[in-house]
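Practice problem: predict the structure.
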Amino acid sequence: METGDPSAVAVRKVTITPKAIIHQKFGTNACYKVEEVQEPVQIDCPGLVIPQKGPCLYRCHLQLPEFSVVSESFKKKKDAEQSAAEMALEKFLPSLHPLGGHFRAALRRDGDLYGSIPVSVTAVCDAKISNLCRLINPKADSNLFMVISFIMRAAAKLTEFVVTSNGQLSIKRKNPYPTEIIESSTIEESVSPETILVEALHVPYSLEKTVQPVTLNMSSSGYYMDVIAQKLGLTEASKVLVSKNIGKGSSDTRFYFAAPEPFLLDLSSDHLHVKLHSEGSLNARASYICGQDIYGDAIMASVGYTWRSKDLFSEDMSLRLYYRMLIGKTPSGIYKLSREAILTAELPSVFSMKTNWRGCFPKEILSMFCRRHRLSEPVFSFLNVPSKEISESSRSLKKPKVIEPAEDEIKLSQSLRSESSFRCEVKIFSKSQDWLIHCSPKEIYKKQNDSVHNVSLKVLTWLNAYFTGIPLEKLNQWADALDIRFCTKNFLEVFVLCQPAPNVENGEIQGIFHVSKDTVAGSGVCTLSIEGRDCGVCPLSGSLLCISYSVFLIAEGENVNVHLESNDEFEFEMGNGTVIPQLETVVTQLSVGHSACFNINVPSQELVLGAAADSATTLYLLDSKICCLEYRITLLRITEPLEERMEQALFSPPLSNQRVEYAVKHVKESCANTLVDFGCGSGSLLSSLLGYTTSLEKIVGVDISLKGLSRAAKILHSKLGTKSDADVPCVGIKSAVLYDGSITDFDSRLFGFDIGTCLEVIEHMEEDQAYLFGDVVLSSFRPKILIVSTPNYEYNVILQASNINGQEEDPEEKTPSQAPKFRNHDHKFEWTREQFNRWASELATTNGYTVEFSGVGGSGDVEPGFASQIALFRRPLQSPDNVSLHEDAAECYKVIWEWHRE
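Answer:
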């Protein structure tokens, strides 16, 4: 709206934070003091002497001339300061309602519009009225027309107090407002500039027309709804309908559109919805983003009155923001936005492991998807898994390349895995609690988080298929393959606005949204050039890759390009569909240090515009030129697949479980009463042993990692501290102790234990330290039995050549000339069978022990032997204990945690 003053200067509105308002009112008299606070940590493991630190938090003291406030604790200092400022505002500012801003603006309107407020504003701003309408009819929650109809009918019965008129969707007070009300509405002058320019978007209902930016020229003394009405071709704001708020941010982003004529003529018709649809003016794009029916052309703007402020709030809208909202309605789009890689990332097809996943996790994406489509939060539940079902499931999921175990070993394996196996299902409901989707997969997972993320990813994958517009018949087939059931009627009713709609762009019919797909035969790569020296370090499936890249929009025959997207360090896991297929195809041909440049066909226009900062140039090129995308990438580094993942991909049960079963077998055979685990880490072995009925009475763990020991203490306490012996099969345990100390140092308290274990530990030490440990443990600790396991280096060629996704490589394509790498970046060495046998045999001979060699994973009779090689040392029964040697020995270990049965 023009101010009438030619000298008026239009400026853009800047968002005013609580701290900025405090500065305007108090200046340097406002004093902020931020202090670091340590939140109390709940001790869930009595007896643990390791200090437990909580997160680093901050609290702000704000001193003002007449009073002071103290904020709550926050992770960031600036959040604490803003919170304190907001608390101060609540003390001296009246509790202003957003409707108050509309009322104050209405009192500045002229003529018959004086004091008149559009009913649609009341419908979306007044929560009490919205709740009452919802009680009358639950469908009012998602039907703006119904709410307005209820309000207008009620107002028609209050002729003594309010005034309404035919064809006008507004209400005003019949009698003049009292003087004190008018004065209270103008107590404080607004701090807004006289004229405000706000960038908005015009979204036409016709899909043949494009979304275009518009500028709202508003006056702080006028009513912004009148300005929007003019942009829609209306005389004033009463006929403007306002949508629900879009998104959860601080902005007040909404769609504004003209009330359909049938609605103005008959507010009480039961067939109103049918009449509106018959007009054929449904705005598919706006309705899809907003989640409610919007008719005719619409203005998308972020402007309005907010709580505890008399100023008009506004933010600029851009085409880029619009298309990012559009993209963010799909599961794949949510993931792309979380990675800030709209043109590069794809929602992975597999949830492999939490440490390798990048971007929002599947569970978070599913929750965000439900919120953006105004559904209830996903409901996750866990199912009990009988041990028999676990065994059958694991056999059906993997094809182990190991020899069949004996019957007693199978029983041990089932017992171990029944202790920590999870199957998760998820249900999704509408806001009115109508059942939509139920996914109950058969897969079983060792970790609870893995089961949650995998079931979430199944649902997301299926929803992505729906958003690509596949036929209902194929959608049903996808559902069966992913263990999904859905209520067709309820699902289609909720997602009817998400059906791909025709959109004419450049003479071609497209959807208003769709998930990016490779539209080119084969790899989809148009041109490819590779530069750099081949260092021989190439990516394997399951590797974690880091690249730098830039993406440009290139116009054919034009010396112009538009930068769309770039990242200096972008990580993704190879082989899981984490990036667009063309990029993965190119990366497989590179080694570390290589750079490549390649072109692909332009994907959906929404993705390009969602990435482009320069929307005008991008839109011009897309509309008038033949374009392609140019990718420039450099492969920076490769992290090989983690040892645990490689082993799990090849063995069932995993090698870690097989090592535990080996230890349990010998504990039972030896009738051991005491056990010490050298290098116990997080207590995985000790915890697993509690799942068996053994003769053990005392278990001890030693490690130098306080973090690992703290975790081990909590796990052991949770199991040993249970009131029910049925939950702990090993009920004979009378004490458990965890020590902080190096296993190369002797402590007399651990002398002469029945059995000692050291599983997959020595390879994390330097070789000379491994020799020292072997000498100390057999000459000083003198356990009756010692079990030591370590990776068989010769087996690495099989592990690293295996395809993580279960596909076999052609043996003729392997390159045996390159030596296999260590299984873990933390390994200092890995021994061949000959090296391990020599180490163990020399130790046994020197210290009067016998040694037997075995292993788990693979077969000792088939090359290259076991995946994990094991040495079993035994002290002969006639061998005397060298007690005198240790009578005065120091107790150098520190007790971190201990437990004794009462």
